[in-house]
Amino acid sequence: MAAPFDPDTPDWPLVALAALGEGTLSVTEQMQLAEQLIRDPQLEEEGQIWGNVWAALPYGLPFLSADQLRGIAALKSRVMQGLEPPDPPLLLVRRLESLLWREIGIPGVVVAILHEDPQRRQRTALLKAAPGSHYPWHRHAGVEEILMLEGSLVVGEQVFRAGDYLRSDPGSVHGPHTEEGCLFLVRTSMDDQMLGMEPGSVNA
């Protein structure tokens, strides 16, 4: 069964697959086949063929020793890494100097959107408020998280400063304001309900 492992034979994977299906490959030949799959430079180009060959390897083997089984498992892991490379991790970067600050219809307040997830209806942004700014009373459709970066923010009876973290549950209502101005990171729902500028509007 030397033909399938001859580098001068272009169709050796197909020959090996046929022989494997017929059960005519010995354990040694199957191990050689697995090693060849790893070494062959066309592994990625012919991945579908070799994937079929490798998928058949475990089922055509006779009873093997524990060491042989461990060796085959290691080979399979290496082959599958070549056949099915993992998706690269996604990385989203926003540089401070390239942020797009925009007005949102609230005097003295601008935001820079960092990320939006339309499926989960979530938005992450930086919010910058000038001294004396008031944010409308609003009801949270989901969890809102705020991390203060600069200045101070008054929410109800509490004052939050740089480094403070504030989490508001779905359904909660507040109308924060700032006396000295502030900058904070906020992660919130895209479906928050704006209620108005006056405290009495929370029951709207």
| Number of helical elements | 4
Q: Give the mean pLDDT.
A: 75
Q: What's the story with the biggest beta sheet?
A: 7 strands, antiparallel
Secondary-structure element sequence? HHHHEEEEEEEEEE
Shape: elongated
State the helical fraction.
Answer: 25-40%
SSE-based structural type: alpha+beta
Count the E strands: 10
Q: Residue ranges: pLDDT <50 for 5 or more in a row?
A: 1-5
Round the Cα radius of gyration to an integer and report it: 31 Å
In terms of DSSP E residues, the strand content is 25-35%
What is the terminal separation in angstroms?
82 Å
Structural notes for this entry:
The chain is of the alpha+beta class. The protein is 27% helix and 27% strand. The protein is built from four helices and ten strands. Strands 1, 2, 3, 5, 6, 7 and 9 form a seven-stranded antiparallel sheet that branches. A three-stranded antiparallel sheet has the order 8-4-10, with no helix packed on it. A hairpin with a 4-residue loop joins strand 2 (109-117) and strand 3. Residues 1-5 have low confidence and may be disordered.
From the structure above, extract its key features.
seven-stranded antiparallel sheet; 4 helices
Write a brief caption for the model.
The chain has helices spanning 12-21, 27-39, 47-60, 66-83; strands at 102-103, 109-117, 122-129, 137-139, 144-155, 158-161, 165-168, 173-174, 182-189, 193-196. The chain has 204 residues and is of the alpha+beta class. The strands form 2 sheets. Strands 1, 2, 3, 5, 6, 7 and 9 form a 7-stranded antiparallel beta sheet that branches.
